[in-house]
Specification:
The complex is a heterotrimer of chains A (330), B (149) and C (508). With 149 residues, chain B is mainly α. Chain B is built from five helices and no strands. The chains are: A alpha/beta (330), B mainly alpha (149), C mainly alpha (508). At the B-C interface, helix 1, helix 2, helix 3, helix 4 and helix 5 of B face helix 8, helix 9, helix 16, helix 17 and helix 18 of C.
Amino acid sequence: MKAKYKMKTLLAGVAALAVTAVPVTVLAQAPAYPTKPIRLVVAFPAGGSTDIIARLVAQRLGEKLGQQVIVDNRGGAGGTIGTEIAARAAPDGHTLTMGTTSTHVIAPAAYAKVNYDPVKDFEPITLVASTPYLLVLHPGVKANNLKEFIALAKSQPGKLNYASAGTGSTTQLAMEMLNRAAGIDMVHVPYGGNGPAGAATLGGQVQALFGSMPAVLPHAQAGRLRPIAVGTAQRSPALPNVPTVAESGFPGFEVSLWLGFFAPKGTPKPILTRLQKELTDIAGNAEMKAQFEKNGASAVTNTPAEMTALMKTELEKYGKVIKAAGIQLK
Amino acid sequence: MKIKNQEDFWAGLMFVGFGALAIWLSTDYPMGTASRMGPGYFPTYLGAIMLVLGAIVAMMSLKSGNGEKITPFAWKPMIMLSLGFLLFGWGVDHIGFIPALFGLSVITAAAGQKFNVVEVLLMTVVLIAGAVGIFIYGIELPFPLFWWR
Amino acid sequence: MESDIISNLALGFSTAVSPINLFYCFIGVLVGTLIGVLPGIGPVAAVAMLLPLTFNLDAVGAIIMLSGIYYGTQYGGSTTAILVNLPGESASVVTCMDGYAMARIGRAGPALAIAAIGSFFAGTVGTILVALLGPPLAEIALKFGAPEYFSLMVMALIAAAVLAHGSMLKTICMIVLGLLVGIVGTDVNSGMSRFTFGASGLADGLSFVVIAMGLFGFAEILCNLQDKADTASRDILNQKITGLMPTVVDMKAAFGAICRGTAIGAFFGTLPGGGPTISAFSAYAVEKKLAKDPSRFGKGAIEGVAAPESANNAAVQCAFITTLTLGIPHGATMALLLGALTIQGIAPGPQVMTQRPDLFWGLIASMWIGNAMLVILNLPLVGLWIKLLKVPYRFLYPAIMVFMAIGVYSVNNLDLDIYMTIFFGILGYIFIKLKCEPAPLILAFVLGPLMEENLRRALLISRGDPTVFITRPISAAFLIATALLLAFMIVPSFRKKREEAVADSEAL
């Protein structure tokens, strides 16, 4: 008796569903973009520097486009999970992603297998920001500038430790580049992110960190960490007295993390052009620029062609370091 | 040889199994040395510890205990609840939040002993209303409500 | 120095009691409590979702609201732990043990109430501690290197074994299993993925939500449904409800537990990486060891609820110390809060206290106010929650399933998470049948990765020298404490074994 009732119920339920549902599959004409909220996939956890910049831009972009831009954090595996999700999304302009050097240059080079191609699966739109890397030392280290530090490292090969945000992170690559350029040998101690790496350097567990500017700037400004060189080609406006690595004897040295907007391959050109215009406006806005600088980043914009070229040169640059340092992630 | 403590016996075997699995999986990872441990070091030794302890538990179970049998497995609830969950997971993206919840609620209710159609449908409606209210409107989770959205 | 504190607190309170900030505080703790009650969705998700709202608020209001959400979720998490054995987050796992037991014997009211009261006390004391001892404690926290963390984790895991109610050997196996489950994911020291079977969803490890929902929620429901008897008779509440509020006896018993829990929570809260989870079950372990009759624990001892609840709340409040004064976040939620501050243009760090005293002290004052609001909110709700328990189980468990399913899926939108929850659900059911305790497993799962990471890191920095664990004073202290704990555990069990052997031989 009970079994019969259950069967009846299931059938009734299915029938009810079928009747109440009227699928509305009207193929709409391409209406004005955007027609619904836009999903901005950020392949890093909420609260990190990438996420903060993404949210700042997302809010302004939403205002300009007339539809909400919702940040969807899909962190994990060095940014590859979120980026893969974005690559597979429908190319209708309603899914975008915040790509960075980590997701579109380093991950493809360092991981044995990545389920997306940074060039083939994406349409670059424009960069929005760039965060430099700052070489900081624990105050107890007896070196006041890069020259002294290198001398110190040369005199104690294999004795000094440096922290990184993880194996394969830009913080490690930057330091490895320096190691190779200067001919020194420091031991790499990986941590689970910029936060723990910074904490370790503050506490003196390691001597040095080539840290992401947003993470280490407050500590450098407070004097708890000693900044000795900045990795960009130009000096940072936040720390005008700190020379660049290039100035200190390594011309051409350049390490920074760029952040830019990408759309899945196949997104219509008009949408891409519109987005590029809006984003360039946003990043050019004086208020936004100031906000970025507070976070240790600088606003940068360029064109899709420039982005593709940038990815290519950087792939070569970092690819060399990754191979030389033997970094291989799975 | 009568197994005195059924629960401990099977628990012991289970741990031996898990330990062996851990060791086997860890052979893929480099061991390194004690002073520079590789990724395989820790899991291998943990697996070994669990294997040994599991064996001890199983052996001790043969000696002390009261021979009580383990109560039988509830297969029907296990299958029904799993199905319901699976349906929900698949359903949210394919047929929508509301139909998925409907399925989950009905199948789950069917796992119990009593199944009064009216009660179940009423409860399902209440649950769906509550869930939509809290999760879709309140927290704004980005789930499509039906399959055409 | 004293007058400084008083003038600072005065500034803080004057900031915090402005009507608009009171409003933000209230919204924060209310949302936090509700989110905490919902299984799966935790403070990280809540703060992340409400972050955009705060862009339009001023910095003080924003941080007051967001932090209210954070410690509000601790309150809410204990509610589900007590009522339906579902831990809202890792710290609530401990509350499940005696809290749910108390619910089953009709004492859910006193359990909920003492959780609220204990948390309030801990929050109050925690606020004072942050105010007084903030910077010095943070400095000590910085001295913690890899060896210290390792030794701390070892001590914590041994303490977890104390939580065992049954066979010690099986508990140790569960801890080891928890450690192995924690290994799933990317290894920090080498960058390699372990135990992931190629699934990218596992690359960052299994999520706590999945394991907690599976082991505690799913398994519990399976267990309740297994009886052939009518499900209606398996209502959670088998006995009459005996009063909503704790009795005088309860309060007396709980008072010591609350104080000790608060102290333990304050200690562990300031350490980065420590936090509410270690605080909660260390406090529980301490109470169990100090109790005159330890066998009460696990069956509904009120100290078993009071201590962990106070500890985890104290830890949450004190976690703000390192975050605010050092600018170093403890965990994902803290990182978000720091991010919110950064967006507002405030760089967290030592200079926050001097540059924005209204923010710093206003936050501290509002934390106290928030705790007061929470206890005023939650105590009357106890009656409401109790009514929930009276719902016949055949309606309750589908509701739980629905909330669990949504909670699990909302974390990552991954089908994988659903499969893993089912897997752990069935596994948890097997564990219950084989009388293996899930709590030590999940605790080892949370702490294990930190232990291994720091062991290897310590050896890396010391270039392979193992004496570093003993030559550094703090690390040595933890290891000595561990040895003592072990001694305390083994000696009585030897005595018990001898007693058992004697009793067995006499019975024959």
